[in-house]
Amino acid sequence: MTNGISKEALAEATGKSLDEWLTMLAKEADPSWSDERLAGHIRDEHGTEDAWARLLAAALGERWGRKPVGRTASTGFQMGVRRTLPIARERVWELLMSREGLKLWIGELAPPEWAAGVPFESAEGTTGTMRVYKPYEQLRLTWKLPEWDKPSTLQIRLMSSSPDRTTVSFHQENLSDLFERERMLAKWEGAIASLREMAGTADA
User: Fold this and answer.
1) DSSP secondary structure letter of residue 49
2) What's the per-residue H, E or C state across 109-120?
3) pTM of the model
4) pLDDT digits (tens, 9 = 90+) for 15-73
5) Residue 151: pLDDT above 90?
6) CB 89, CB 158: distance < 8 Å
7) Side by side, which strands form the sheet with 77-85?
8) What angle do CA 177, 183, 189 make, to 5 degrees?
9) How many Cβ atoms sit within 10 Å of the Cβ of residue 151?
């Protein structure tokens, strides 16, 4: 399911649109139920995958006025993923900025001469502009998929307190809804896993 987290994917996987699900579930459930109880009800009564059940529970809670995880007052929905890899920071940076590495966070793109203010567009249509460029430390950029109405802000940080271990952090904000947040969580978790594979390391 994580390869296609969207409202369209929900409808295709379950046979119901998000609005249809929320209308039906609002009649079956009670606002006093926790998200965990809601997800269990959706999973057990309707046979949905656990990931869809949890996402639908959060969406219903939001409709009932609850503040979902990741929603902020000023930057829409946001998410963050952080993992420590048994790789030197310089090596992580080299992988991240290589042509193969760029595929993980932008797409197919000939590596440009990066600097603050440099725009980019991948072959897949991902667009944006580099805002902060600090080699071996930090990237901050606008980042937009072709189907999105507005860009998000993506920050990638490399942090290290020892020569052979690096913490890789992806943080993204200005996402429009729960579905975009879950989709991006899956994407950046996959990106870090791919960096590990590119470096040829086992799980730390």
Assistant:
1) -
2) CCCCCCCCCCEE
3) 0.74
4) 888 888 888 888 888 888 887 888 888 888 888 887 788 878 877 777 777 776 667 66
5) yes
6) yes
7) 77-85, 165-175, 152-162, 138-143, 127-134, 119-121
8) 135
9) 15
Distances, alpha carbon 179 to alpha carbons 77, 99, 103, in Å: 10, 29, 22
For residues 92 and 71, give the distance between their C-alpha atoms in angstroms, rounded to a whole number.
30
Tokens representing 179 are 């579905």
Do residues 169 and 82 touch, judged by C-beta distance below 8 A?
yes
In contact, 2 and 186? CB cutoff 8 Å: yes
Strands 138-143 and 127-134: antiparallel
What's the Cα-to-Cα distance from 56 to each of 87, 132, 136, rounded to whole Å? 38, 36, 39
Contact 92, 105 (CB under 8 A): no
Nearest to 76 by CA among 179, 145, 150, 175: 175
Q: Give the pair of three-digit tokens for residue 138.
A: 């930090």
The one-letter amino acid code at 7 reads K
Q: What angle do CA 143, 149, 150 make, to 5 degrees?
A: 40
pLDDT in tens, 36-49: 888 888 888 888 88
Tell me the pairing of strands 77-85 and 119-121.
unpaired
CA atoms of 35 and 20, how far apart (whole Å):
19
The DSSP element (H or E) to which 99 belongs, if any, is: helix 99-105
